[in-house]
Specification:
heterodimer, A: 294 residues, 6 strands, B: 142 residues, Single alpha-helices involved in coiled-coils or other helix-helix interfaces, 2 domains, five-stranded mixed beta sheet, 10 strands
Chain lengths: 294, 142
């Protein structure tokens, strides 16, 4: 029976797919764990840098020139879009890019002439935006996203800071997927430059425990050196969170796919058994009919 | 008075050191610092270089750090830098490779537009690593 044979092939292929998605699910959970571990070990560093900034901010003079804090009229927004290099990760990239469009619409509603310059990390986002004719300033390919280390984050951060300092863009926003929990990730645009969430000089609310530090060299110089380090941690953190989200998202997608394949296999098996039984019954009838004819 | 100092080295990859020691020597941007327990609060930028840790039991240990910051507060000395490794963790082969790469880059600087200070810094790091690694294994000439 052709029908039975077809069914047998179908069942086999569905089982094969379930095996593949199952393996991908396991790989994704491993990678998720790794990304989480990396994010975990970054935390003390970020905390220390943040801590230094908070301590130093009080010492920075009001007249210090801090170009990275400079607010100017925003005509061009630089957006760093951190997507993934690979697909099969559920709605991870579509959510991210939908958030991008939302962000874009909000900006355009305020000012119809608003311009965007895009910096892409991750192939999926790049291809999507490129096809739709967006101006892409830079697409980071090396190192690939899943091998991105602190040095990579540093490079990305430098590119963004340079563009801001050369006034090619008036603000920089990092669009990445925040990792809330293993089942929840939210694509969020986060303000990167100018730096808004650090008060300096006279704006600082005195902590009342301004320590009598020995500062070498002067506070302004240290602060100037500290700020790029801080920005690097922000980028690295965004990359790590995106990675964790990507892997978690892929794991969920693959789990759903494996479950669906198993269910489908079961249903097919039922249909197959019925068809097989029918075939046997028919054959028996033929034999019985043939015997009585003799 | 406690005669021990809490010493931490924090990098983006991991917290390399986090323990009590007797004293620490490191390179600030404008000279060498020796920090003893209960040193006055201090905040400084540091240069890439070798950090000497004097342990509580009198031994010394050396490690390499890249540029970053040092903060001394409440008897805790924190070095916050991009990379830091203890002498026994240094991979001599990798350092030698890095040295070669950096030298090539410096030699090629006329032909290709590259960032010379960056290459020089890389070379410096590679040399420091090798020096420290060799000294550790006792094959260096220092």
């Amino acid at each position: 029976m052709a029908n039975v044979k077809e069914l047998r092939i179908r069942i086999k292929s569905v089982a094969g797919i379930a095996k593949i998605t199952g393996a991908m699910e396991m790989v994704a959970s491993m990678k998720l764990r790794k990304a989480q571990a990396a994010a975990q070990s970054l935390r003390p560093y970020t905390a220390e840098i943040r801590n230094l900034i908070d301590h130093l901010a009080e010492f920075v003079g009001n007249d210090a020139s801090l170009p990275l804090f400079d607010r100017r009229e925003v005509k061009t927004t630089g957006v760093l879009v951190i997507s993934s290099d690979r697909g099969l990760c559920g709605a991870y990239n579509s959510n991210l890019l939908a958030t991008f469009h939302e962000f874009e619409r909000a900006k355009l509603a305020q000012n119809p002439g608003h311009r965007f310059k895009l910096y892409c990390y991750g192939k999926k986002g790049y291809h999507y935006l490129y096809k739709r004719g967006y101006q892409i300033e830079k697409f980071f390919v090396e190192p690939p996203l899943d091998k991105a280390d602190f040095a990579a984050a540093k490079m990305v951060s430098n590119v963004l800071v340079d563009a801001f300092e050369r006034r090619e863009v008036d603000e920089v926003v990092v669009l990445f997927t925040e990792f809330v929990s293993v089942a929840k990730f939210v694509a969020t645009p986060t303000q990167f430059l100018p730096i808004g969430d650090i008060a300096t000089g006279g704006d600082v609310t005195p902590s009342g425990q301004k320590q009598d530090y020995m500062l070498e060299p002067d506070p302004d110089t240290i602060f100037q050196r500290l700020i790029p380090r801080y920005l690097e941690t922000v980028v690295y953190d965004a990359i790590l969170e995106s990675q964790a989200s990507e892997h978690a998202s892929r794991r969920m997608a693959m789990k759903a796919a494996s479950d669906a394949a198993k269910r489908m296999g079961k249903d097919l098996k039922k249909v197959y058994n019925r068809a097989r039984q029918e075939g046997i019954t028919k054959e028996l009838l033929d034999i019985v009919g043939g015997a009585s004819a003799v | 008075m406690a005669s021990e100092l809490h010493f931490r080295v924090v990098t983006p990859q991991k917290t390399v050191v986090d323990r009590k020691v007797a004293s620490v020597q490191f390179m600030g941007v404008d000279g060498s610092y020796g920090i003893l327990p209960n040193h006055a609060p201090l905040l400084t930028a540091t240069k890439p270089g070798i950090v000497t840790i004097h342990e509580l039991d009198g031994r010394t240990e050396e490690m390499l750090v890249t540029d970053g910051f040092a903060e001394m507060r409440d008897n805790v000395l924190s070095l916050i830098c991009e990379a830091g490794e203890l002498a026994q963790e240094i991979d001599l082969e990798r350092a030698a490779e890095a040295e070669k790469r950096a030298r090539e880059r410096i030699a090629e600087r006329n032909r290709i537009d590259i960032n010379l200070p960056k290459a020089e810094a890389a070379l410096q790091r590679a040399l420091l690593r090798q020096m420290l690694g060799r000294r550790r294994s006792g094959t260096g000439h220092l």
